[in-house]
Amino acid sequence: MNEEGVPPDDSTAGVLVRLRGLLPSLSVKERAIGDVVLKDPAGVAQLSISQVAQRAGVSDTSVTRFCRRLGLTGYPELRLGLAAAVQHAHSGWRLRVGMQGNIEHDDTAAEVVVKMAHADAGAIQDSVEQLDTSALDAASRLLARARRIEVYGVGSSALVAADLEYKLQHLGLLCSAFCDVHRALMNAAHLRPGDVAVGISHSGRTRETLDPLREAALHGATTLALTNDGGSPITELADLVLCSAGREAPFRTGATVSRIGQLFVVDCLYVRLAQAKGRDAANSALSHAYRAVERHRTVPHGEDGTSEGKEPPCP
Length: 315
Hints:
By secondary structure, this protein is α/β, with parallel strands linked by helices.
């Protein structure tokens, strides 16, 4: 992040964020290198490629491949990225919740709560650094003018897909979410130019999400992907990509970590969409939805149940 709070465009920025997110999908040799880097990023930034290879028990060629897996041109760019990441960490911007580290079997409830808070805050922090704000704006413009929007996601990503569906419907957009691959494929087969298909996958490799997105593209729909891995197969199917971030650790699988980062990106997208619609249009859409739902809320004793003047304001 620069002084204005905008993620830097330099390709070396956020190298540790990308590494933490990719770690579960790396090969054995790549993971060994990743462990060395994450254990001492400042120290690795001062080492030669041969020294890093020796620490990880791999060849120099494996380190070069590891760098390319992170989207870097080679080891010199990795060293620059690590140096920048270390300097950024010392700048004081990162959130500090308290106790850090992995959750252990013998942790107390208090320790679990604090570590969970730090991990969740870290997932949002990393997503801030990973998210391309120009892509976010492009996605909001794309969804704002779409004839219809279909969202595909399974597993923990299905929850994020449902959240996106809910938020877009609040704004009066025609949107449906699918977590069943058969229904998703049938839906995608009926899309056409002017429609938008959104695929949500933490790994970017889930076939149940990739296949409907591919089918939608075949019929002329514009495709949007939300993923943790900017180099995964889903990005090859998408016209536009939004990247979230999340750290894997014991007791915190992708089902929890990835969802935090993804939901954060969805929230940002929702607010930008509301802004793009304009205050009057967005307020009108939100008010209609609010009034419709308000009728199904329990009326407190002694009140007449009216909700006039209580509509939530547009972001």
